[in-house]
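task queued by scheduler; priority normal; single chain, no ligands, no partner chains; default sampling; output format set to structure tokens
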Amino acid sequence: MPHDLHPVALREELIELGDLFRAYQQRPEPDLAQLAELHSRKAKAFTTWWEVTGETDLRLEAQRAEQAAAAALLQHQQRTGQSPVGDGEVTSRLLPGLTQWEHARTVLAHVAEHTPLPGPEARLMAVMLTLRSALTGTGNLVGQDVKGLPLTEPEELIGRLLDSGWLSIPGTADDLLASRPESPTPITIPSLMPDEDGKGPFDFGRKTRPKLSGWAQRVVGDKKLRKKKTGAAVRLLALALAIRTTTDGRLGPEGEGIDPAVLASWCAVDPGELESLVEQLIAADWLEEAAVTDGRLTGRLTERVLPLSCPLP
């Protein structure tokens, strides 16, 4: 930097930025919000410098600083559960950050491989019970937890889960459905219980489990999904799409869409039924711009449900 650079305010800004960048490099932990601000200030300073001198290299350096600021800000928003919505706006997500989003995907993948019974109702029930007892294989349930799900015959489904050995409760299905918050029913899922080394299928902490469970309940129990009286398969599709989006809600990695066969398999329905499920999500203001192109379901989550999404890395 020339010692006689003018205006003086620009020279002072560049000197201060140099000091701030050096100080940032000494931080024990990164602060991406601060880094984005530093790069933004650098971009403005180099743009002013370019306007004073007309040197192309300065303009290019300003552009690189702008890009670095945008990248640092996006990383900060992702790590704190936020993402851009519009100019100067961000959306805060129910599950904050990359780690919890990945835990949500892990739980749903586990359920896809270990649901003991066929059909979407059994799978939806397995999702909710798994999240209630994920770390120890045990948890508590009340009748309303089950009655709030779109199940045709909840008593019969609970009975089949008990007969399969996947679920264990003290008492009968009727007892579970009649239980209230002041006296919940203890449940056990043996396959989720830790082994002799204390390891189970999931590695998240005790504080994370209720957050994941609450997230799934918010998705499955969404007001408009309930108002439209959507079935278990539609609720499963809502979960599947919520964990397969970009930060701005476009479906699939980099918004390139999702294989419909993968979605149909997760929803435990025939591939031909998927179109109807998608239409129901559109009607419930969950999904927009949906289309099947080159064998991929494309589209985006609506702004209304974007806070429930868990963007892909």
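post-processing summary
- The mean pLDDT is 89.
- The radius of gyration is 25 Å.
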